Give the backbone structure.
Amino acid sequence: MGQVQAHVGFELRSGETWKNPWDMYTALRDNDPLHHVEEGDYYFLSRFDDVWEAAADSSTFSSAKGLTVNYGELEAAGFGENVPMVFLDPPEHTEFRRLVTKPLTPRKVSTIEPAVRAFVAERVEKCKAAGKADIVDELFKPLPSFIVAHYLGVPQEDRALFDQWTEAIVQAAALGNVEGAGSAFSDLLGYFAVLAERRRSEPADDIVSDLVRAGEENVSIARILGFAFTMVTGGNDTVTGLLSGAACLLTQHPEQRAKLLADRSLIPNAVEEFLRLTSPVQNLARTTTRDVELHGRVVPKGKRVLLGYGSGNRDEREFGETAAACSVDRPIKKMLALSFGTHYCIGAAAARLQGRVVLEELLGRTPEFTVDVEGGVYAGGNYVRRHKSLPWSVS
């Protein structure tokens, strides 16, 4: 008699259940690559090629109704006219993205490297002097918030308030419950409405000023506010996830750390490998605009499909038998950590810069650092895998 196949299922992860979603992903890739989750009535794609193709086809897999598995999420969030760009499909998305990409190109992003390096070096030296720290609190969370505030043009004197709003909104968005941010959401939008108005008479070198210069007829205040929300939710916890995940991988794989210490030119490629393995954005949903046939089944029009970036990035069909292994010199032609197609991460260059500089400074100043992988605590949220705290030490 043949073996009875074990039940294969998908469960949204959050908090400590993020420690190991990998076994679940492997089972789904091998046995049920288009998995229907009855509770919630949505589908999960787990294989690299399927996720890649769905991400590329925004006309079939639309972002316009939201990115979580919760039907009616945008109506519940109450964005009104302040719809963030992540919820736009072409041609609206294409036109707006063109207005905001120039400051975020790799060449333009490189100009902020000295400021980033100074920020990181100061924090690393503080941790080094203490000998131990919660590296998330000291560096991995403050750094992306610093970057987002820079690009949005938040003045230094407002950074503390901005960080409070950001934390509340990121926590709520991670749970797929934007309205749960309470007054922080309305306070943030109110703040940027005032800031955008100020930039009309006092322009600065930031994206809000660029959008204001485009004119109200091209970019409404509501669209600027939606972009601010996109930057806050997309640019903070995702980078924290990359940095904390990278620190764990370097602790778990001392032979890979040794490679980086021996050859620092490998660090940019190591960032790619760490992005692949950590996949801070583990999954995001789309809504089908037509019936879609896949793996001998049909996904009806109007159904949520969760794109499994984290699963696809460990698919042996794309990355070979060593897909789950960490190799800082692995050639990586393509991956899903930054999505693909229309919604390819607008902050990709900034995320890579932060990853590279943090690795350079940590390895250069504290080459023997370790983190307590088992003692780390994962944050709540079904879509972004990141640490809330991570004990760090250096001898």
Observations:
- The longest helix spans residues 183-201.
- The two ends are 57 Å apart (CA to CA).
- Residues 225 and 290 are 31 Å apart (CA to CA).
- The first strand starts at residue 34 and ends at 37.
